[in-house]
Write a structure and sequence with these properties.
Layout (H helix, E strand, L loop, with lengths): L3 E7 L4 E6 L6 E2 L13 E6 L4 E8 L10 E7 L4 E5 L8 H15 L17 H12 L8 H4 L10 H12 L8
Antiparallel strand pairs: 1-4, 2-3, 2-5, 5-6, 6-7
Helix pairs in contact: 2-4
Length: 179
Amino acid sequence: YFGISRVEMNQSADFSGALGRPGWPDLHVNPNAGLGAALPSVSVIDPLPGTRVIYTYDSRTNNPAFEGRPAGVAFYNGCGKGIALTFPLYYLDTADTRALINRALVYFQDMETTPGDLNGDNRVTIIDILFLMAFLFHNGASPDDINQADVNQDCQVNMMDPLYLIAYKFRGGPAPSPG
């Protein structure tokens, strides 16, 4: 349901914060919040395909088993959007937490979306095609709503979708529709 296949917990006090992916603020543990500058028992996760990683683990000791691994995801499961974080907000810097909440509010807004608009600017451009190509072939960020990337409505996000967008944008093909 959350777009996560596996969770692995770091028992040691090693979590110093989370690095935000583009559009999401970096988060830091508040050293005055009661547990010091690093938190224990914070997990990393293995996301399922189509789940967008929004935060990665920032290890105080640069532990290779945890450093840079996913610690927060945004997902759309057909019933709605969600965010799953492996760390508590209570111990984070207050300004960072506010920035996260404000960004989450933007993410959850019920906005009218344009099918094929993968970067959120309410229009289909070459940038959306490049975004989709990066997602498919270069481990780029996944779209907030994976259904927006299935523009040919075949219930798969594959090479046919950027080709469909190219035909629409440059060849007068049919308009995209979300899958």
